[in-house]
């Protein structure tokens, strides 16, 4: 009788430990899925902002994205890098100043949403770093941009 109780107890302990392992795996799987969703969301937040010709103003369509970016920076402890660019139409110095205005406009908006100024760095590039040909309207459109980079700080 004593042996049967010990055997039964061992079986119960074994059963519970197997189920506990399954629960742990499920929790790990859930965490992995949550992390990949966050990575996808961050990838979307760091897509380039494109601009109209000769304009430093952010397009209305991007404000929701910038609101989400500000929230991520504040809530998840990120620093932001904003790299301003212009197409090759116009003078070198003019495009340099325009690219700076584009990046600074985004910075000011993020600060207005609660992001600390010390967490945002802007760098103008003018027309020196194209990502597409400046020979076509489509290429010039892609070159008129602000690139957004995020870096996790602390933990």
TrEMBL record:
GO terms for cellular component: cell outer membrane. Residues 38-154 form the OmpA-like domain. This is OmpA family protein. It is found in: Cell outer membrane. It comes from Pedobacter jejuensis. It comes from the Bacteria. CDD domains: OmpA_C-like (cd07185). Keywords: Cell outer membrane, Membrane. The keyword Membrane applies.
């Amino acid at each position: 009788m004593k042996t049967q109780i010990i055997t039964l107890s061992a079986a119960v302990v074994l059963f519970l430990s197997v189920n506990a392992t399954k629960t742990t795996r499920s929790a790990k799987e859930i965490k992995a899925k949550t992390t990949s969703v966050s990575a996808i969301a961050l990838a979307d937040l760091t897509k380039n902002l494109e601009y109209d010709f000769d304009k430093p103003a952010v397009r209305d369509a991007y404000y929701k994205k910038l609101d989400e970016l500000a929230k991520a920076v504040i809530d998840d402890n990120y620093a932001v890098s904003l790299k301003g660019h212009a197409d090759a139409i116009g003078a070198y110095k003019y495009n340099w100043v325009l690219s700076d205005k584009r990046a600074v406009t985004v910075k000011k908006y993020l600060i207005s949403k609660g992001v600390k100024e010390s967490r945002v760095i802007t760098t103008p590039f003018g027309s020196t770093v194209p990502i597409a040909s400046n020979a076509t309207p489509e290429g010039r459109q892609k070159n008129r941009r602000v690139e957004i980079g995020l870096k996790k700080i602390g933990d």
